[in-house]
Every structure is written in structure tokens, then in C-alpha cells.
Specification:
Shape: elongated
Helix content: over 70%
Distance between the termini: 29 Å
Order of helices and strands: HHHHH
Number of strands: 0
């Protein structure tokens, strides 16, 4: 069996980080909901059920949701690069940079939630994603 493409390691790392955020989300949300005596009413519109929770609790859920959005593009392009044999070198470096920036973004959002810092981290990680897409596109559409 051939060695796996190096780009697959950051894919697994970001999935692992997403699971860490999932645990952190519930470790803070469930006690906060109990303390606030939130009724689990299915007729309450989405978002209103937890709207009364402290912002520091909601930030973890917001970040978990963010990890289910743009990173799906990262997973797709990383898997494409692995499949076409282009998942090493610059592509692997950009993938690790993307993951590190998303982890830092998570930590900022889940703790202090500085919007400008989050924006800068989001833009930098997005540029890594653009780079990965360009690498894949240049190879596939050459």
C-alpha cells in the first residue's frame, strides 16, 4: 500500500478539532441551559431556545457551526488533491496553515470573540483555501 498523501493529516486534524469544539459546546451549553431553566420546547423557533444564554456559551456553538460551513470546501479540495497525487509540498503546507488558522479562529471566537481578529483569521484561512483550489485547478485544467 502506498503512503497516504500528506494533505490527509490536516484533514483529520481539522475533523478532530471540530469534535473538540463539539464537546466544548455541550460542556458549556448543557449546564448553562440547566441553570437558566430552559424548557426544551419544540415549538420555540430555532435560535430562540438558547438566545437567553450568556454570550460566552453561545460563542462555542457559533464556532462549531462555522466549522461545519467553509471547512467543507477545504475537505473537498484536500481530498481532490490527495486523489490526483498533488497532496504534498505547497498544498500540504497550505492545508496545515488553513487548519492552524481555523483553530486559532475557534479559540478567539470561543473565548474573547474579537470580531476584527476573527475576520483577519478568516481572510487568511480563506486565502489558503484559494491557494489549494488554484493548485487543484491548475493541475486538473492544465
Amino acid at each position: 500500500m502506498a503512503d497516504p498523501a500528506p494533505i490527509l493529516a490536516p484533514v483529520v486534524a481539522l475533523i478532530g478539532w471540530s469534535l473538540v469544539m463539539w464537546v466544548w459546546l455541550y460542556a458549556t451549553r448543557l449546564p448553562a441551559m440547566r441553570a437558566a431553566h430552559v424548557a426544551l420546547d419544540p415549538t420555540v423557533p430555532p435560535g430562540q431556545l438558547t438566545a437567553g444564554l450568556p454570550p460566552q456559551v453561545r460563542w462555542k456553538a457559533d464556532n462549531y457551526n462555522h466549522l461545519m460551513e467553509q471547512p467543507t470546501l477545504f475537505y473537498a479540495v484536500a481530498l481532490v488533491l490527495a486523489l490526483i497525487g498533488q497532496g504534498s509540498g505547497t498544498a500540504a503546507t497550505l492545508a496545515w496553515a488553513y487548519v492552524v488558522l481555523r483553530i486559532i479562529h475557534s479559540l478567539v471566537q470561543a473565548t474573547v470573540n474579537n470580531i476584527m481578529a476573527r475576520f483577519i483569521l478568516f481572510v487568511l484561512s480563506s486565502l489558503c483555501l484559494v491557494g489549494l483550489t488554484v493548485i487543484a485547478g491548475c493541475f486538473l485544467f492544465n
